[in-house]
Amino acid sequence: MKTRIKHNMTDNKDNNKQEDQNNLNNPFGRFSPNKKGDGKQPKFNAYWIYGIIAIVFLVVQVYVSNTRGPVETTWSKVKSTMLASNDVERIVVVNEEVAQIYIRKDRLKNYEAEFEGNFAKPADIGPHFTFNIGSVETFENNLKEAQKGSSSEILPEYKKETNWARDIIWSIGPFVLIILLWWWIFRRMSRGGAGGGAGGIFNVGKSQAKVFDKDQKVSTNFKDVAGLAEAKQEVEEIVQFLKSPAKYTKLGGKIPKGALLVGPPGTGKTLLAKAVAGEANVPFFSMSGSDFVEMFVGVGASRVRDLFKQAKEKAPCIIFIDEIDAIGRARGRNPNMGSNDERENTLNQLLTEMDGFDTNSGVIILAATNRADILDRALMRAGRFDRQIHVELPDLNERAEIFNVHLRPLKLNEDAKVEFLSKQTPGFSGADIANVCNEAALIAARKDRESVTKQDFLDAVDRIIGGLEKKNKIISQDEKKTIAFHEAGHATISWLLEHAHPLVKVTIVPRGKALGAAWYLPEERSITTKEQLLDEMASALGGRAAEEIIFKKISSGAQNDLEKITKQAYAMVSIFGMSEKVGNVSYYDSSGQSDYSFTKPYSEKTAELIDQEVKVIIDSQYVRAKKILLDHAEGHQKLAHLLLEREVIFSEDLEAIFGKRPWDTKHVIPENGNDQKDEAKAVAEKSEKPELKDSEKESTKE
């Protein structure tokens, strides 16, 4: 209870500060409402003023509408009734357009029925009737004609009247509307549109960073960051630099000026920055790289200057720039196509502020990107980003830690084990694991279960990897048979080759855009050998080989497989140096400086040689795949028919047909974590791998 009260008091203090800042930026800020009722001077918001003006306008409008003037009539009625009965006292022509009729007082009672509901003035005050006369000359002739033979002739009076309100509205009204429209547009821009901060268009060059001060604590801390042990250690050290700098500078060292978080999407780079904001007891500035880029020239550089100006005033502090590649791309990368000068100017200003003539003391810059290869070299040098912290995809143990975090709010069944789930999700990022847990909970709720079971998690993994099942998709029997033998070919070869990924499940139920799918459990490796790549390539070609063997024709179903193995073969030859004819060379530029190059780093003769070697590798593995399927034709056909019958088969079905894999001890998936140590021990004791068969040796040599 005490902690909650403390947080509420802090929030109120922060809100007061924010209101004060808004009052400075808002010209009507002193009239903002005091909702707290804390005894301070009452305030009124600008919108209250707008409301009062609108109410006054409505009151005036109602008053005007209730004080209607003379009754509208026509010349024929005036002539036949009023002039004929000698009821008219005088006629006044206003602005040579309208005639106003004044009735004699002793004759007003004859017109009481017409006055009722239309004439709100006292009955003895005129004018009583009005009508349009057309032209003055015509009106005078008609009046003379109507009064022929009358004892008392009435002559019209003429006068000029000026409607100041109407003239003002028609003269300056359009300009007022334009000004109001202009004010409204820039008011909208100042609320987060293109124009910038709370100060409106005049503060367009101000920094858009969110500031978390000492009394604005972020709820995320390092305990909420699972896995990422090495990255978390380096980030924690940055926090220690600011908390106790003397510990690191007493021996003459300098505090690092910046750290760059690099890694694939979803691995937790922004989460690490949030943890720094929650742990560091210093001001924390947070913004995205795109916040610097603006439609106005020079705004990006101005915002960079303003950001570092604020940071220097609050030093020691931390600046976090997310997705810094939005402004940090290498300059002059593509001069032939033109360049974005505004972005380059912003980058130049950032480089100067980070390490220029004027030094920054006590300001540490954190940045995150998943495109470190395209960043400018000047940005990456020591003195600006002194450290590059690589945030990679989590391994087996780190995935277990991440699962433990995301499983806390879920109601789990006893069969849902963290160790099993972490082994079922190789290559998943932290964001993917969070999505798996959420999808599993939704699937369990959809099935009206009391808790989330292991099967719900498996279904969630299938849903994320393959997409939603499409059981109602119309597929002919011939297509279904082709898909079954195609997937059975993949499964057969992957089961019979040592380095191919072990199979988990095969299905011919359409998922997403795929008509069939197979789930494999990749071995987590740090390096990959040529034999492993060749085995994976032969397994990928198993579907096309099965179609040719069984149906004597091929289909378009192997498109993804061919795309995958083609890229893999070119990588083996031109990047990994795994071709004897091409040699131990690599044409890959890891610096990313040749992304827009129009020339290849090798000659046309070498290009032809690379193409030939790629074709040899692919053809040899295709021949190898067909030979394996022919040698195990009976098992392949059994598996395909079983797949047609059940639509989904598992690794146990392959084991019943082909037998247990002799090298499968390192791929065992335990149901719980009790035998994990025994498994690791068995793998460690296994010093020699089983030799390949003679046919496999010959195919590998080819």
Secondary-structure blueprint:
Elements: H1 2-25, H2 46-66, E1 71-72, H3 75-83, E2 88-94, E3 98-103, H4 112-115, E4 129-132, H5 136-146, E5 157-159, H6 164-189, E6 210-212, H7 229-243, H8 246-249, E7 258-262, H9 269-279, E8 284-288, H10 299-313, E9 317-322, H11 325-328, H12 341-354, E10 363-369, H13 377-380, E11 387-390, H14 396-406, H15 418-423, H16 430-446, H17 454-466, H18 477-496, E12 503-507, E13 517-520, H19 530-540, H20 542-551, H21 559-574, H22 604-631, H23 633-646, E14 648-650, H24 651-658, H25 676-685, H26 694-701
Parallel strand pairs: 1-4, 2-5, 7-10, 7-11, 8-9, 9-10
Antiparallel strand pairs: 2-3, 3-4, 6-8, 12-13, 12-14
Helix pairs in contact: 7-9, 10-12, 14-16, 16-17, 18-19, 18-20, 18-23, 19-21, 19-22, 20-22, 21-22, 22-26
Description:
The protein has helices at residues 2-25, 46-66, 75-83, 112-115, 136-146, 164-189, 229-243, 246-249, 269-279, 299-313, 325-328, 341-354, 377-380, 396-406, 418-423, 430-446, 454-466, 477-496, 530-540, 542-551, 559-574, 604-631, 633-646, 651-658, 676-685, 694-701; strands at residues 71-72, 88-94, 98-103, 129-132, 157-159, 210-212, 258-262, 284-288, 317-322, 363-369, 387-390, 503-507, 517-520, 648-650. It has 702 residues and is α/β, with parallel strands linked by helices. The strands form 3 sheets. A 6-stranded mixed sheet has the order 6-8-9-10-7-11. The protein has a 5-stranded mixed sheet with strand order 1-4-3-2-5, covered by helices on one side. Helix 22 (604-631) packs antiparallel against helix 26 (694-701). The two termini are 74 Å apart. Its main location: membrane. Its EC number is 3.4.24.-. Keywords: ATP-binding, Cell membrane, Hydrolase, Membrane, Metal-binding, Metalloprotease, Nucleotide-binding, Protease, Transmembrane, Transmembrane helix, Zinc.
